[in-house]
Amino acid sequence: LLVLAGSRGRSGTRPSARPGIAVQRAALETEAVIEVRDTDLVFLKDHLFGSPSAAGCVLIGGENNGRTSWRNMKGQSIADLEQLAVGPSTGEAVQPG
User: Fold this and answer.
1) Ramachandran bin of 38, using left for φ above 0, alpha for ψ from -120 to 50, beta for the remaining angles
2) I need a surface site. Which of 8, 12, 54, 90 has the fewest CB within 10 A?
3) Rounded to a whole number, what is the distance in angstroms from the first to the last CA of the chain?
4) Which of 83, 50, 42 has the alpha carbon at shortest distance from 66?
C-alpha cells in the first residue's frame, strides 16, 4: 500500500503496540520518510508498505487490520473491494469437474 507524502497519523504509539511498530517508525524517521510534529506523524515523502496492515500500524501506532480499515471515497474497504472482485459467495462447496 502506498502512503502519500502529507499523510498524517498518530504521533505516539499505543501502550498495547508490539515493539516492532516503534522500531519500524524509528527506521522511517531515520530515513526521513516520516516526522513527528506535536500530535501528528507526517509523511514527508511517498512510502510503499508491504501490506495495508503494516501501513495502518505505522499510521495509528498500534495494531491494525488494513484490509478493513483503509477505505476509498465511497467508504469501501480493501476487503469489500476484494469481495466484489471475486463475486458473491454462496457458501456451497464446488465439486471438481
Assistant:
1) left
2) 90
3) 37
4) 50
Secondary structure of the chain as H, E, C letters: CEECCCCEEECCCCCCCCHHHHHHHHHHHHCCCEEEECCEEEECCCEECCCHHHHHHHHHCCCCCHHHHCECCCCCEHHHHHHHHHCCCCCCCCCCC
- Specify the residue for cell string 522511517: 28
Cell numbers standing for residue 4:
502519500
Tell me: the pLDDT tens digits for 23-65?
999 999 999 999 999 899 999 999 999 999 999 999 999 999 9
* Threshold 0.90, pTM exceeds: no
Long-range contacts of 25-31 (CB under 8 A, 24+ apart): 25/58, 25/61, 28/58
